[in-house]
Amino acid sequence: EAEVAQSPRYKITEKSQAVAFWCDPISGHATLYWYRQILGQGPELLVQFQDESVVDDSQLPKDRFSAERLKGVDSTLKIQPAELGDSAMYLCASSLAGLAVRELFFGEGSRLTVL
Amino acid sequence: AQKVTQAQTEISVVEKEDVTLDCVYETRDTTYYLFWYKQPPSGELVFLIRRNSFDEQNEISGRYSWNFQKSTSSFNFTITASQVVDSAVYFCALEVYNQGGKLIFGQGTELSVKP
């Protein structure tokens, strides 16, 4: 069964360091999402791509976070510099384009701990 | 503004008990979709159900059932004869039509089913 792949599964870093997460969506899924889930809370959308274009990054802290999907396939989410409050699970999801309501398929997430 | 509230933070039951997880949502839009996701300890979000705002019929799938009531803005989830494997965090989510997959999640309810 096709899956959304994410790496690394776990990352521990020190404050002010750079960190990057990678996501490979299900083949053929044009829409890709990055969600952040703080412990004890529900996921919150950070950025949404349609192919290689950003369609929603209103909740992305752009002073330190960046996201790209250069060829419209896999995607990287970067944090530079990391802060203590960035400790969270970063979930990637993908869906087929062209539907008004889409079923999202989530990866297992990348858990970040900032010390 | 859209909002989803799951007032129950944690629920603990003994195997074979029935359990209901509550979800209350807020939106001014007339066309919207409601979801339930399951998040096991491994971290990925597993899709359980999607309902649109025009279909208030209750749905049953095996031991799972969902009760959608627009009059009270609620979309509750019942597990009948719970099993240990049902232990997970359950999230209710809302999507407004044509917002391209942007889900508004509740804070989640952690269900613990003890043998």
Task: Briefly summarize what is shown.
The complex is a heterodimer of chains A (115) and B (115). Chain A has 115 residues and is mainly beta. In chain A, 0% of the residues lie in helices and 48% in strands.
List its salient traits.
heterodimer; A: 115 residues; mainly beta; seven-stranded mixed β-sheet; four-stranded antiparallel β-sheet; 11 strands; B: 115 residues; six-stranded mixed β-sheet; 12 strands
Structure write-up:
The complex is a heterodimer of chains A (115) and B (115). Chain A has 115 residues and is mostly beta strands. Chain A has strands at 5-7, 10-13, 19-24, 31-37, 44-50, 53-56, 65-68, 75-79, 88-95, 105-106, 110-114. Chain A has no helices and eleven strands. The mean pLDDT of chain A is 92. Chain A is globular and about 35 Å long. The termini of chain A are far apart. Chain B is mainly β. The termini of chain B are far apart. The model of chain B has no long low-confidence stretch (mean pLDDT 92). The chains are: A mainly beta (115), B mainly beta (115).
